[in-house]
């Protein structure tokens, strides 16, 4: 429970924790940022780390002169790209062994073929949009690996998504993070960064599931 309480406090008050770390350890904060983003995007069991809010706060701290934008952005980009590549590789090479393919009751060959087809057709958009959705951005590259999306296609969209995600949110924090209204409502903004993309993802999944049921109901029975 203490760990959970600390994580919640860290996520909601990441500005204070990060500022304290900068004051205490200086340049080592860049190593901490790399580790947090790499682990969140690269390890499928760690989806709860504060990606979006972290990037925004980093941008705000760069705008306040506590960190360097030209150093933080490349480090965060490297962490985001390498993290997704790691997660994809875990899914691609360990996923089949975990499911034991056709010998396992957990493996559905038809579902696998459908997932593979989906990621080949729409996986690029999924990888990019998932960057802005907590939890989903951790699982999307893993599923892409399990579905055997080609590495070249995955890498291309991984890099594009990372560029939009990192530069977009860090820059938003840089230009707007130090406004008085933003600082006064920072906790609400952090909650928004967590909840709004999640609700959008849930709604999208519900809508897709409903559409699938309607297609199944309208399909002629054999």
Automatic annotation (TrEMBL):
Membrane topology: Multi-pass membrane protein
Location relative to the cell: Cell membrane
One family name in Pfam for this protein: VTT_dom
InterPro entries recorded: DedA (IPR058127), DedA-like (IPR032818), VTT_dom (IPR032816)
Domain VTT: 49-174
Gene Ontology cellular component annotations, sorted alphabetically: plasma membrane
TM spans (from-to): 28-49, 56-82, 122-144, 156-177, 189-206
Keywords recorded for this protein, A-Z: Cell membrane, Membrane, Transmembrane, Transmembrane helix
PANTHER family: INNER MEMBRANE PROTEIN DEDA-RELATED, TRANSMEMBRANE PROTEIN
Family: Belongs to the DedA family.
Record-given protein name: DedA family protein
Lineage: Bacteria, Pseudomonadati, Pseudomonadota, Betaproteobacteria, Burkholderiales
